[in-house]
Amino acid sequence: HRAGHRSLGVSRSILAPALAFCDRRSGFIVALTILVVMLSGILYSVYLGEQFRFPDERDYYHLATQITTSLRYTVDGTNLTAFRPPGYPLILSALLLVGGGIVHLRVLNFVLLSGSIYVLHILLKKHSSRFAASLGAVLVLCYPVLFYAAGTLYPQMLTAFLFLLISLFLTRDRLSLGASALTGCLFGYLILTGPFFVLILPVCCLWRLVFVDAHCWKALAVIVLVALIPGSIWSVRNSKVFGSFAFVSSNNGMNLLFGNCAEATAGTGATIDLTAYEREAAERGMNEVQRDSFYRSKAIEYMWRHKGRTVNLYVQKLLNHFNYRNSLGSKNESSEIKDLILLLTYGPLLVLFLARVVLITWFRPTHIETLFIVVYFASALLYALYFTRIRLRLPFDVLLIGVVAAFVDSLVRRRVARS
Q: 232 vs 219, 247, 248, 253, CA distance in Å?
């Protein structure tokens, strides 16, 4: 009995001052976290220099360069393309326009990562507590795969930042017409950066109707209409250039085929050799958008003929979405040490996240928690239709960190209250 009282006293002596310190120094903690991210990010960007580790990085850079120099959306300077969505290259081209180089483009990703930390801090401080806000910032810092991804010219940091900004508006009790229009603009650019988020848009609207305001139809209508404008304009451009419709980008069919063909497994991702399909498309004289449609038809044909394997493969891909390792096409970037680091950092976060979901009736969730939980699971269900990769999951891992921070805050405060 006395030992129990002593343990409670020790817990209170540690936890209560920690809560009080974070409540007082929340702003200092997030500022220090952002400072560490920016200083180390600049040093890391200089260390990486102007070498690209992945082929996609080179494509994004060349697209941005061509936008800056010729105002044409092309990789090779000759052939117009729609393969990659234009949102991220447009951001890069703005920095190139003022004299930036590859190192500066990498630093931009760390600015976006820092911005994500700050917005997450605001969301948690508003909907949970200052302690949760401080913890969320620290957990992002302690999740090194985000830092690694920020060092590559990939759009994941931009999509994470945009969605967190959108969350600021979606979690409001009331949405004015102006706020709805601004939310739609942010969502529109998010879709222009990652067309996948057009599937997340109805998920967010349904969440708001169920959890926040069942009578916000007008606000949601404004958000949806405004959000679809940028992607629609770019899709019209694609139709004029290629004579066929492609929503934002022309890689949807290829991505669907990567995840639904005879060679596909839970972890193959985009490493499958599609040479046979490419040869057939070339023999038919198909352009880029026509190839996209051809790949999609082949994927759907395979899924229809192999329904049992398709369902089984979908379940495997869904589970693989939460994996700590991937088979990469760039073998130099794979290592057991990196896998171990991700296991030790992502594993505990995922366990706490799932515990939060299981205990949702014991701890009343806030708006931000329900939004992040719904979107996190929805993204897994939707990505499993195509293929799953850690890189694709990263913007949503920031949401997972937000849920974990709020959950730990609830646990700590209940323990302090009991003690």
A: 20, 7, 7, 18
CA distances from 348 to 122, 345, 389, 401, 407 (A): 24, 6, 19, 11, 13
At 92, list the tokens: 């890069």
DSSP codes joined into one string, 71-108: S--BSSSSSB--SS-SHHHHHHHHHHHTT--HHHHHHH
* Beta-carbon count within 10 A of 147 CB: 18
Of residues 338, 389, 403, the one with CA closest to residue 140: 403
Rounded distance between C-alpha atoms, residue 331 and residue 321, angstroms: 20
Burial of 212 (0-12, 13-18, 19+ CB in 10 A): middle
Smallest Cα–Cα separation from 392: which of 259, 213, 280?
259
In a 10 Å sphere around its CB, with 0-12 CB exposed, 13-18 middle and 19+ buried, how is residue 276 labelled?
A: exposed
Beta bridge partners of 306: none
Q: Tell me which residue of 223, 169, 162 sits closest to 194, measured CA to CA.
A: 162
Give Cβ neighbours of residue 201 (< 8 Å, ≥ 6 apart). Answer: 187, 191, 223, 224, 227
Tokens of 185: 């603009």
pLDDT of residue 334: 61
- Flag whether pLDDT at 170 surpasses 80: yes
Per-residue pLDDT tens over the stretch 277-308 = 999 999 999 999 999 999 999 999 999 999 99
243 Rama sector, left if φ>0, alpha if ψ -120 to 50, beta otherwise: left
Say what the pTM is. 0.93
Exposed e or buried b for every residue in 9-44, given b needs 16+ CB within 10 A?
Answer: eeeeeebbeebeebeeebeebbeebbeebeeebbeb
- pLDDT per residue as tens digits for the range 63-105: 999 999 999 999 999 999 999 999 999 999 999 999 999 999 9
What is the average pLDDT score of the chain? 92
Contacts of 77 (CB under 8 A, 6+ apart): 66, 70
CA-nearest of 141, 161, 171, 77 to 365 is 171
Rg (CA), the chain: 23
Determine contact, residues 131/19, Cβ cutoff 8 Å: yes
Nearest-angstrom CA–CA distance, 97 and 105 = 12
Which range, of 232-241, 271-280, 390-399, averages the lowest pLDDT?
271-280
